[in-house]
Automatic annotation (TrEMBL):
Its EC number is 3.2.1.21. Belongs to the glycosyl hydrolase 1 family. The active site is at E416 (nucleophile). Homodimer. SUPFAM superfamilies: (Trans)glycosidases. Keywords: Glycoprotein, Glycosidase, Hydrolase, Signal. This is beta-glucosidase. It comes from the Eukaryota. It is an enzyme of class 3 (hydrolase). GO terms for biological process: carbohydrate metabolic process. Residues 1-23 form the signal peptide.
């Protein structure tokens, strides 16, 4: 005789079978491979971090107020022709004068954490630590205190693209001394804010700063050092990061008990033709250039990947050089850098196809020639306002797995993920972003639940529309809309904010059955 309890159990099983046989997709018309794209119901591990991220220069404004010193983005954006429509971040979202409203949005979303960055030259106008600007320090205390008051944890980036101009004049990140200047700045911040801040990020996206700022010259400081800039700047930044990590580890960890790491940005590189061995190798080469060349020193053996060293070495030789263009670490430096991370910070936005490209020997070598790769995309992939950003949810899961396969069970925080829509008439119904978040977070869920990736947190980029670097305010990434024509910089929730709030409340995407049981 079946007992009533068993009968209910059978019904539940039956219902589960029915619901899992009706496949659900987020982008039904584009990503509808049942194996790859089927929506997964389920929730993230308990205690999962739900956040949103911003960066000082992109939101604060008040560029020369209350004793703040100039930084490289102030200088760069004030040069005509460097940014979209010559826009700058002089006012941006005016977050310097809107602490309360910003924290209110964080509360509305139900975030557990808010990731923002400190403006180095707001705290130290010249960058050097002998001359502090108390008003700048107070601003960050006010923000941090308001967050803590609302039980939201601050997650603080020390450096997000905005080097004090004085330090740039001494060579910027091409100057070896930056390692020590950065360490001194970091030391001050741990000491000043560390009793309240338990998650630290040293440098946001070293590779992006290096390639855009010191090789292509399209980001501040706008230097062009083809073939050399990227490698030299990444080299210095990795050492600067490592020193800051050790400072925290030795002087503050025991009393403050926080975590500290660095943030890398990466596309997913998919072979253009998975049957073509050269494309398969080119895709892996790109992953190593883009992510491995920074992750290997820290999460691997302390050194750059052998393949990357060999490729740059061979190219350099073929270019007639007797010394490789890629700097190398001494054994002591490798020791210094290896293991300097408490988690893996990952910014991810998009995927690209990679095909093999025959090496080109141009009169002036570039890092792009070193890649020996050709990029493309599938025309069906939804296009964001940013040219480089195609929406490809499944690439996210593959990237998370690649990190696990290469660097083991390291806890991963996705420190940025999001999508841009063009500037235009006020439209709070941001369908592309809503679908982007649902599908990308769903792929993260698959990585966590099915693949066993140790994913512990997720930060949406970004809390509010802001100054998108060289693109000015022409590309909007915010969960909240900002009216840049309004002196009050009024913020309004977009639909994606409501969607994200619900995902956070549910800690993922529980099935109807799961939701009922939890009631
Ligand atoms: C992040 O970088 C940044 O951390 C954040 O500040 C930014 O707002 C956000 O992404 C959105 O862009 O002009 O074709 O050479 C992400 C990595 C690196 C992607 C620079 C775009 C420029 C491509 N970004 N890249 S291109």
């Amino acid at each position: 005789m079946a007992r009533p309890g068993m009968l209910i159990a059978l019904i539940v099983v039956f219902q589960t079978l029915i619901s899992s046989s009706t496949t659900e997709f987020v982008f039904e018309d584009v990503f509808n491979d049942p194996e790859r794209d089927t929506f997964l119901h389920g929730t993230f591990p308990e205690g999962f971090i739900w956040g949103a991220a911003t960066a000082a220069y992109q939101i604060e404004g008040a560029w020369d107020e209350d004793g703040k010193g100039p930084n490289i983005w102030d200088a760069f954006t004030h040069i005509p022709g460097k940014t979209y429509d010559n826009q700058n971040g002089d006012v941006a979202c005016d977050s310097y004068h809107n602490v309360e409203r910003d924290v209110e949005m964080v509360k509305e979303l139900g975030l557990t954490h808010y990731r923002f960055s400190l403006s180095w030259s707001r705290i130290f106008p010249t960058g050097f630590t002998h001359q502090v600007n108390p008003a700048g320090v107070q601003y960050y205390h006010r923000l941090i205190d308001a967050l803590l008051e609302a039980s939201i944890q601050p997650a603080v980036t020390l450096y997000h693209f905005d080097l004090p101009q004085m330090l740039e004049e001494l060579g910027g990140w091409e100057n070896e001394m930056m390692v020590l200047y950065f360490q001194a700045y970091a030391d001050f911040c741990f000491n000043e804010f560390g009793d309240k801040v338990k998650i630290w990020f040293t440098i946001n996206e070293p590779k992006v700063i290096a390639i855009q700022g010191y090789e292509a010259g399209i980001f501040a400081p706008g230097k062009t050092r083809p073939g050399y800039g990227t490698y030299r700047v990444v080299h210095t930044m990795l050492k600067a990061h490592a020193r800051a990590w050790h400072t925290y580890d030795q002087k503050y960890r025991a009393t403050q008990g926080g975590k500290i790491s660095i943030v890398f940005n990466s596309f997913w590189s998919e072979p253009a033709d998975p049957e073509n061995q050269a494309d398969v190798e080119a895709a892996e080469r790109m992953r190593l250039f883009e992510l491995g060349s920074m992750a290997n020193p820290i999460f691997g053996n302390g050194d750059y990947p052998e393949l990357v060293k060999a490729v740059v070495g061979n190219m350099s030789r073929a270019q007639g050089l007797t010394v490789t263009r890629m700097p190398s670490f001494t054994p002591e430096e490798q020791q210094l850098i290896k293991g300097t991370a408490d988690f893996f910070g990952l910014n991810h936005y998009s995927t690209r196809f990679v095909a093999y490209k025959k090496p080109e020997f141009n009169p002036i070598p570039t890092v792009y020639d070193d890649f020996q790769a050709e990029f493309s995309s599938d025309p069906v992939w939804p296009q964001a306002a940013s040219e480089w950003l195609k929406v490809v949810p499944w690439g996210f899961r593959r990237l998370l797995n690649w990190i696990k396969n290469n660097y083991g069970d390291v806890p991963i925080y996705v420190t940025e993920n999001g999508v841009s829509e063009p500037d235009g008439a006020l439209n709070l119904d941001d369908e592309l972003r809503t679908k982007y978040y649902r599908s990308y977070i769903n792929e993260a869920l698959k990585a966590s639940k099915i693949d066993g990736v140790n994913l512990q947190g997720y930060f949406a980029w970004t809390l509010l529309d802001n100054f998108e670097w060289a693109s000015g305010v022409s590309e909007r990434f915010g969960l909240y809309h900002v009216d840049f024509n309004d002196p009050a910089r009024t913020r309004r929730a977009k639909n994606s904010a409501l969607t994200y709030t619900q995902i956070i409340k549910d800690n993922g995407f529980p099935s109807d059955e799961q939701a009922k049981v939890e009631l």
